[in-house]
Amino acid sequence: MRVFISTTTFAECNKETLRLLRKKNIDYVLNPYKRKLTEIEINNILSESSYVGLIAGIEPLTKQVLENAKSLRVISRVGVGLDNIDLHIAKQLNIQVYNTPSALVDCVPELTIGLILCCLRRITSVDRNMRKKVWGKEMGLQFRDKILGIIGFGKMGKKVARLAKAFGAKIVFNDIRTIKSRIAEYVSLNELFKISDIISIHYSSKERLITKKEILRMKKGVILINTARGFAIDEDSLYGGLKSGKIGYAALDVYNNEPYSGKLVNLDNIILTPHIGSYAKEARIRMEAKAVENLIKGLAKTC
Which SUPFAM superfamilies match (predicted)? Predict the structure, then answer.
């Protein structure tokens, strides 16, 4: 059996996953490009070789790609999101799809809190000034008593709430489900936009969440954080909000298109990171191990 591994840094932190594949007599091929694959590239790879399994990253696994992958039986996603996979077609083709949601419950919320603190205290801004030999102090804000609005109150959102509570923040949230919480108060999405000092996105929908209309409803100087889905925020509207000062500061780890090289890089009041939510060594090892475990389980059912 042969499988293709598309993630760019697979097994760099720990080779045990590759040893396990060999032990199970599973041949593997690593991503030769060492970057996110395009639709054409992953289509060519899966259609030209008899891969029965794919350990997947965030490359587009569209209807065409899946239909051309004649031998494919299992997709094991290294990560949480499945929005890059046409799940309807995968089901029609009897391709099993797995992901690794529990592996990121700590590292993405930790990154989120780190970005919030950097925005509040202007850490990246003063660091840039120091490197330019400018001794310039910027007045920041405390996290204590700020209203943190969390959109999407699943595992990630709840963990962010618990961490933020330790700083003395007040937590409100919105979710499409009815959820009870002892540390956070449910509010409507409109109310969340209206009252939050900081807004953090943790939902998994493919729908656009924040456009110019939503930004106009927010507090002046609001801090906006997105470590969930790039499509959630209209980046042109975000750019306008940051330029006008309606949005005081923002931090993004995900983008409409990746790798990102748009006009937001020209603004000083935004922190941009290259989709590093899962890039904590411990989490990466757990996530890759679970992905291999899922792959082996899926192949045992189908091959």
Answer: Formate/glycerate dehydrogenase catalytic domain-like, NAD(P)-binding Rossmann-fold domains
